[in-house]
UniProtKB/TrEMBL annotation:
This is Copper resistance protein CopC. It comes from the Bacteria. SUPFAM superfamilies: E set domains. One of its GO terms (molecular function) is copper ion binding. It comes from Rhizobium redzepovicii. Keywords: Copper, Signal. GO terms for biological process: response to copper ion. Residues 1-22 form the signal peptide. InterPro entries: CopC_dom (IPR007348), Cu-Rt/internalin_Ig-like (IPR014755), Ig_E-set (IPR014756). Residues 27-117 form the CopC domain. One of its GO terms (cellular component) is periplasmic space.
């Protein structure tokens, strides 16, 4: 009986660990938001740690052209905040963030959202 209980407990822990993946919880430039000041970094906060080497965030202008950004880096609890340095002199207009991350458990997540920089 102890063996069955131990096995069930072990199996439930494996299932729980397998379900963990990095889902986007918050963005420093929230979707559909209008900003007057450009922050130093685009910050994408995830529910779990992110693999920096296998994660990207691309900033696109209204014409769909990728814009230069700084080198991404991680911060926050266990590396769950993916940051991309931005040019503080970004022109007013509509922008799209196209992101893809790989969580430390090997699962990928991706998405896209838009924001506006006002004059």
């Amino acid at each position: 009986m102890k063996s069955i209980v131990s096995f069930c407990l072990f199996a439930s822990l494996l299932f729980t660990a397998g379900e963990a993946s990095a889902a986007l919880e918050q963005a420093s430039l929230p979707p559909q938001q209008e900003e007057r000041l450009v922050p130093a970094n685009l910050e994408l906060t995830f529910s779990g740690p992110v693999d920096l080497a296998r994660s990207t965030a691309v900033l696109l202008n209204a014409q769909g052209t990728a814009l230069p950004t700084g080198k991404p880096f991680l911060s926050g609890p266990e590396g769950s905040i993916f940051k991309v340095p931005l040019d503080p002199a970004m022109a007013p207009g509509d922008y799209t963030v196209d992101w893809r991350v790989l969580s430390m458990d090997g699962r990928s997540a991706e998405g896209q959202y838009r924001f506006r920089v006002d004059p």
